[in-house]
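Expect sequence, tokenised fold; for instance:
***
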Amino acid sequence: MVLENKVWYKSVLEYIGITLGTVIIAASINLFIQPHNFAPGGVTGIGIIVKEMTNGLIPLWVTNLCIDLPLFITGLILVGRVFGAKTLYGILSLAFFIWLLPIEDVTNDLLLAAIFGGVLTGTGVGIVFKFGGTTGGTDLAGFMLNKYFPGVSISSFMMAIDSLVVIASGIVTRDLKIPLYSIISLYISTKVIDLLLNGFSYAKAFFIISEFPEEIGQLILKELDRGVTVLKGRGFYTGKDKDILLCIVNRSQITRLKETVHSVDNKAFVMVTDANEVLGEGFKELKKS
């Protein structure tokens, strides 16, 4: 009963955290992004472009749902349970709060709007990631594309999609300032997400020492779809041989990996370090210099 209560309490906290994150993202969009037609990449950027092209006939939250829900369903079919309930909740929650919160132009200064829009969006997305959720969009598209083109990292796909959206915003608005300010907002939000989750490093390397390396390794493969390398080590004090698990994950999987290890062995020794550049399957392609 106590264990069930802890699991329930943890789950409630996660959904509260995701809700808080989506409220912050929606506030950023409605106060700083939408009023100036910034399109800082992703589904939100596409939605703003569609809204501009239809003279406001199709609101942003409608476009978000029309793109994110099919992406989510496709992800379930092609990739599996990695797209879980928290992803669906994040998608619906963000669309709801974009619809609910008023659209207000709080500043006429485009640079201030781009900066604060980026900071708030990054903060909201970082909080959502912290609690194991996502808000759909380019995260889902990048993950699915990476499954079929593993030589190209998820972040590369996301950057490509975001870049196309930013370019499209300039074409639609016929105003060069819009894509330039959108780039500023996108850059700032990305840096804030990185800062909240793992400093300025894109990936983290986990070294895991446990009495149950086989169970942890299998669960990582199943739940996170990440590779695990077994390193051989020996405890200096005990003199016993030990298997050390090495696993490298991207920013959105940091919290989930910690939870995965804890679920098997809450006494495991885990060292987390920055991986400033990761080359290989699932990350950046290894190319000749």
Q: What stands out?
A: The mean pLDDT is 85. The chain has ten helices and four strands. The first strand starts at residue 203 and ends at 209.
